[in-house]
Amino acid sequence: MGTAGIDFWFDFASTYSYPAAMRIGALARDDAVTVRFRPFLLGPIFKAQGWTTSPFNLYPAKGRHMWRDLERLCADLKLPFRRPDPFPQNSLLAARVALAGLDEGWGEDFCRAVFRAQFCEECRIDDAGTTSEILAGLKVDPRPALAAAQSDAIKARLRTQTEEAQQRGIFGAPTFTTADGELFWGNDRLEAALRWASSL
Amino acid sequence: MGTAGIDFWFDFASTYSYPAAMRIGALARDDAVTVRFRPFLLGPIFKAQGWTTSPFNLYPAKGRHMWRDLERLCADLKLPFRRPDPFPQNSLLAARVALAGLDEGWGEDFCRAVFRAQFCEECRIDDAGTTSEILAGLKVDPRPALAAAQSDAIKARLRTQTEEAQQRGIFGAPTFTTADGELFWGNDRLEAALRWASSL
Known about the structure:
2 copies of one chain form a homodimer.
Chain A: E1 4-10, H1 17-30, E2 33-39, H2 42-48, H3 55-58, H4 60-77, H5 92-102, H6 107-119, H7 128-137, H8 142-149, H9 152-167, E3 175-178, E4 183-185, H10 190-198
Parallel strand pairs in A: 1-2
Antiparallel strand pairs in A: 1-3, 3-4
């Protein structure tokens, strides 16, 4: 019998991916589920639905609720939160660096640090300076990490990962998928997804 | 000091309003919160966002997830569930009858029965026959109830209620609002909304 596992699909620009990324480690450990972090890009998926920006910008009432809801949610979870400006931010660089880091053991810490930078420290995650500072904070040499992130292999991997997300029917983030093909969308489905994975 | 209260805004055609309607009574009693049922019509609100039908139909990947998610959710809650066909169904008649019933003490039972008819008994809620059967099952004489539902006063009330929903920033259902103006969208926010209301 194998270990129960879950894939955690997220885009760094996705608001509800922030609490999900901060919560998933401890919750998965409690349920003895292993987690695979799978950064991807929502942009191409939104574009295929006819959206040129976040639906939270396209539908202002929905956006207003989201910001207030996220603020309440973070307060409940005792997670610091400041609304990023601009929103959404281009997450391409962060996603590529994350993929490089996930090969090398510092990927998950990097992911959490990027979410923190964006959602509580008012940093621009599309700025290479922010990325370098985060890497330095993790005691990772920024130059080779950024070079790996810009390699053809990592660029192709992010494209493939995004295509796989789309093929699996992923339309938003965060999304959790299980080995038997179940798909759970939203930070508020994290517990259900873990329960499902651990019952397989 | 008054009693803590919450407004429960829903459209009978809204899928996640079904589990919310079935859960809200017992949960609110546990939190000593009184609930006001506020049926309204999502149609005009969706139209203002440029949608001609449910977003679950407009965005098929989102729709596929919703049906599967609702099925899993109802299984967890031990609520019977069958996918209605067609979807969405016109909820105008049911909303008007509900408003009439909420004045007379049988409104909440009627609401739950309409959700059950649509989401587990494969009935068409836009059919006056279904409505009459539901009323008869509640020992309510269908003729005066249907006449009241079609009165100018009730028609105007439903329009006003829908306008109020829109003015409050409601963009989907179910939505819960509290006396201090907080808005919680989604069945999965019911517990948070009740906690908020009971802390006021």
